[in-house]
Amino acid sequence: MTDSNDSVLSLFSGAGGFSYGFTKAGLKPICGAEIDKNACLTYEENIGGVCHNIDLSSISPDFFKETLGGKKPFVVIGGPPCQGFSTAGSRKHEDQRNRLIFNYLNIVKEVKPRWFIFENVEGLLTSGAGASISSLVQEFLAIGYTVRIQKLNLAGFGVPQTRKRVFIIGNCMGIDFQFPQETHSYDSGKAKKENGRPFAPTLFQAISGLGVVSSTRQLLSQYGSLDPINEFDAMMRFGNEYSFVTEHYQSIKPDDEIRFSLLKAGQTMKDLPEEYWHESFKRRAFRRVKDGTPTAKRGGAPSGIKRLQGEFQSLTITSAATREFIHPLENRPLSIRECARIQTFPDHYQFIGNASAVIQQIGNAVPPQASLTLAQCLKDIDGKFGSGVQVIKQYEQPRLLGFNLTDSSGMSPALQRTASMLRSLLYNQKELELE
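Below the sequence we write its predicted structure tokens.
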């Protein structure tokens, strides 16, 4: 059995993006847990070890206690499915899918890791008018964890896309800590931040070197050059023993190729003449005008296909990217392998399942590059790995250390409500210290 000083338990493991980053940091999970069979197979193919194909909404936390042999792991990592909180759809505080978030908490309570990292979409911050995350934080405090909350744009860690996610990190030792500092500036055209550090790789830099797409999934695609084009290309090729890659293909219908050819960089379907709109786009666009549904419940403005801008970081990779994200120069959507690279999966990473299953695995993943940064940060803070980092402060009682919900100068009314609830938690802790 792995020593409990460095053991990792991976929950909601998916394709293993979170786990792969920890593995690169020398903290390979002893096992994963995932409901999707194909994702489990992808995990086992690339991470090694067992990924338990189980439903975490119904499994007893005792299962993991037995798996760990009763030892307390160094860290539990995982991001419960986020459909109930996602800003891409209607957010419902009572959504049963959100129960998985609290099941994650119950497993942490039972196995008692030194640390946990909880990842979710930014919609978590305003779900239930702020009550969801406030309740979750209070539960973590109640089971003995000192926590900090931060919304991160993972482009700040060198991921070549705008990808905003909420992280809650906690420890049971009462250690005060900070999230890792950003290593990169970024500019996706939509989200920008210049912090004096090098810019994250652009979309062009991320997909350079992959070569021409093949026409079918069964055909392998040769690299476009014998040697890597740039530093990111070299990083993605590292560990791939062959001169070719899988999953770099696209099959385009003639009508779609015409449609794509009319799009300029940064344009979306609404910029095309209406005769080129997809039927699904027409229905959604017209429904938004006619049905009177409140804006907040419509799931955002429809954009359909969109041509990406190669000189910026990509937009967020989702399961729709291979249908909707058009290559900056070529008249085709991104390939699966291009999406995997933008998510920082290396070229040797192999995905199991049909095309729709694979792009969903990729779109749901925590980018390994960001995971690696978080893993190294925990190792440094904890001090059990010879890092020599001094602990800022240690508290006797669990507490909320702080929160950072946005880099923007202003907040929406919904986010202001959440901030108010979290500030109340901070204030009440201080009051208790005075008693």
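Residues 289-300 have pLDDT under 50 and may be disordered.
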